[in-house]
C-alpha cells in the first residue's frame, strides 16, 4: 500500500485539485477514455467515502455500548443484533456520533488546523498507551501469547480452504490502509499543494503501515487464548480485552480515548468526502449540482457537508430493519476505493506511463514496477473484499459487496452515456490538463 501511495503521490503532485482521485483516473486514462474512467471513479469514490462516514459512526457507537458488557449491565432483550431494541440503541448512538462529527465541519476553517492536531495527539496517545500500558497490564493478568502462537498459529473460522482462509486475513489489515488519498481531496485548500498534498498521501500511508504493523504484532502477543476471545460478547471485543488486562475502570479511559479518536477520524472523513462530492457537483455530474457545488463566504463547501450528513444518516437507518443489510452496505465502502487505487496504477502503466513530468514525486526508473505492483496488490485486496467470508455460502452469509459494486458501476456507465460531453470533462479540458502537467516538468 505504501507503493500504491507513491503512485498516487506522483500524480497528485502534478494534479493537486479537489475531488482529485477521479481527475487522476481521467487523466491517467488519456484523452480518449478520460471521461469514462472519470465517471467510473467519481461514482466509486463518492460511494466509498460516504459509506465510510456512516460505518465509522457505528464503530464509535460499538465502543460505547461495549462498556455494558464490561460492567455486566442488562439490556432489554439482550445484547444481540437480532434484538430490535438493541439495534435501535446502536442506531441512535451512531446518529449522535454523526451529528457531532458533522457539527465540527460547520466550524470556521480557522479551527481546522487545531482540530487536526488534536486528532493526531489523541491517536498518538492511544498508540503509546497500547504499546506501553497494555503489555504491562497483560503481564500482570492473563499473560502473553507465545511467539509460536503469534507467528505460526492459524485458525480456520471461515470454512474456506486453508490457503484462502489465510488470505482473508488481509480483509482488516488492508482495510486500515485505505483513505490516504484524503489529503489530495483538499488540495485546493492547501498551500503549496503540489508538494504538501502529495507528501500527505505518502507520509500517512507510511505512518499507518509502520505503526499499524507494530500494533498488530503487539496485539497478537496481548490477545487472550481463543476460548476467552470467542467468549467475549461485546460488539467491540477489544473493550473487554482492555478490561481483562487493565481493569474495568481503566477500560473506561481507553474506551473514551478510542471514541474521541474515532469522532475526530469521522470528522476528517467528512472533510475529505465533502470536498470530493463538491468537486463532482461543481463539474455538473450530480443531481442538484448547482446547489451542492456552491461554497459559502469563507470558501467552504457547506452544502456538500450537508449532503454527506443526509446520506450517512439515511444509510445508518438500515441498521433498524437488519444489521446484515447495513453490514453489506458498509462492507462495499472499501471495495470502490481499492478498485480505484488499482485502476489508476493500471492506467498509468498502460495508457500514460510517460506523462505527468511536472510531479515533484516522480518515480523515475521505479515507475513501471511500482504500477505493476500497485495494480496487482490492489486486485488481490479487491478479490478479498468481495469474497464470501464464510463457507459454504448461503443467503445469510453471501457478501453483497460485489452486487453493490456492480450496481454503482452500472450507474456510472449510465451517467457517462447520457451526460453530454460539454457538461463534464470535455476532451479539450483533459488535453489541456495533461499538457500542462507535462510542460511544467520540461520548463
Automatic annotation (TrEMBL):
What is the membrane topology listed in the Swiss-Prot or TrEMBL record? Multi-pass membrane protein
Gene Ontology, cellular component aspect: membrane
Locations listed in the record: Membrane
Q: What is this protein called?
A: Amino acid transporter
* Gene Ontology molecular functions: transmembrane transporter activity
The highest taxon in the source lineage is Eukaryota
Q: Which UniProt keywords apply?
A: Membrane, Transmembrane, Transmembrane helix, Transport
Q: Which organism is it from?
A: Paxillus rubicundulus Ve08.2h10
Which residue windows are transmembrane per the record? Answer: 6-26, 33-52, 88-107, 119-138, 158-180, 201-221, 252-272, 304-324, 330-350, 370-391, 397-418
Lineage summary: Eukaryota, Fungi, Dikarya, Basidiomycota, Agaricomycotina
Name the PANTHER family for this protein: AMINO-ACID PERMEASE BAT1 (PTHR45649), THIAMINE TRANSPORTER THI9 (PTHR45649:SF13)
Amino acid at each position: 500500500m505504501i507503493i500504491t501511495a507513491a503512485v498516487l503521490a506522483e500524480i497528485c503532485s502534478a494534479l493537486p485539485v479537489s475531488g482529485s482521485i477521479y481527475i487522476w483516473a481521467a487523466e491517467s486514462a488519456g484523452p480518449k477514455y478520460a471521461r469514462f474512467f472519470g465517471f467510473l471513479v467519481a461514482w466509486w469514490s463518492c460511494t466509498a467515502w460516504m459509506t465510510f462516514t456512516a460505518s465509522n459512526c457505528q464503530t464509535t457507537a460499538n465502543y460505547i455500548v461495549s462498556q455494558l458488557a464490561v460492567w455486566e449491565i442488562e439490556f432489554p432483550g439482550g445484547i444481540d443484533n437480532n434484538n430490535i431494541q438493541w439495534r435501535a440503541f446502536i442506531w441512535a448512538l451512531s446518529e449522535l456520533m454523526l451529528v457531532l462529527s458533522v457539527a465540527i465541519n460547520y466550524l470556521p476553517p480557522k479551527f481546522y488546523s487545531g482540530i487536526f492536531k488534536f486528532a493526531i495527539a489523541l491517536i498518538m496517545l492511544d498508540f503509546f498507551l497500547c504499546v506501553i500500558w497494555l503489555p504491562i497490564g497483560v503481564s500482570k493478568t492473563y499473560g502473553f501469547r507465545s511467539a509460536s502462537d503469534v507467528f505460526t498459529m492459524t485458525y480456520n473460522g471461515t470454512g474456506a480452504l486453508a490457503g484462502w482462509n489465510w488470505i482473508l486475513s488481509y480483509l482488516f489489515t488492508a482495510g486500515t490502509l485505505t483513505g490516504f488519498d484524503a489529503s489530495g481531496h483538499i488540495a485546493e485548500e492547501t498551500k503549496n499543494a503540489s508538494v504538501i498534498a502529495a507528501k500527505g498521501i505518502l507520509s500517512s500511508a507510511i505512518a499507518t503501515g509502520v505503526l499499524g504493523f507494530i500494533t498488530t504484532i503487539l496485539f497478537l502477543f496481548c490477545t487472550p487464548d481463543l476460548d476467552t476471545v470467542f467468549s467475549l460478547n461485546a460488539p467491540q471485543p477489544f473493550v473487554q480485552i482492555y478490561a481483562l488486562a487493565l481493569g474495568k475502570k481503566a477500560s473506561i479511559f481507553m474506551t473514551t480515548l478510542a471514541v474521541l479518536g474515532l469522532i475526530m477520524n469521522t470528522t476528517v472523513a467528512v472533510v475529505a468526502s465533502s470536498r470530493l462530492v463538491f468537486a463532482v457537483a461543481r463539474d455538473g455530474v450530480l443531481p442538484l449540482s448547482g446547489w451542492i457545488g456552491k461554497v459559502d463566504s469563507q470558501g467552504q463547501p457547506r452544502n456538500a457537508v450537508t449532503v454527506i450528513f443526509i446520506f450517512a444518516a439515511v444509510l445508518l437507518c438500515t441498521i433498524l430493519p437488519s444489521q446484515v443489510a447495513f453490514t453489506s452496505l458498509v462492507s462495499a465502502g472499501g471495495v470502490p476505493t481499492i478498485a480505484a487505487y488499482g485502476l489508476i496504477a493500471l492506467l498509468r502503466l498502460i495508457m500514460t506511463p510517460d506523462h505527468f513530468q511536472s510531479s515533484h514525486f516522480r518515480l523515475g526508473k521505479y515507475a513501471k514496477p511500482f504500477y505493476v505492483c500497485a495494480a496487482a496488490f490492489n486486485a488481490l485486496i479487491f478479490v478479498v473484499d468481495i469474497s464470501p467470508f464464510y463457507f459454504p455460502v448461503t443467503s445469510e452469509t453471501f457478501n453483497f459487496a460485489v452486487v453493490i459494486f456492480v450496481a454503482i458501476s452500472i450507474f456510472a456507465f449510465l451517467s457517462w452515456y447520457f451526460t453530454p460531453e460539454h457538461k463534464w470533462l470535455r476532451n479539450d479540458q483533459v488535453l489541456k490538463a495533461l499538457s500542462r502537467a507535462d510542460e511544467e516538468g520540461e520548463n
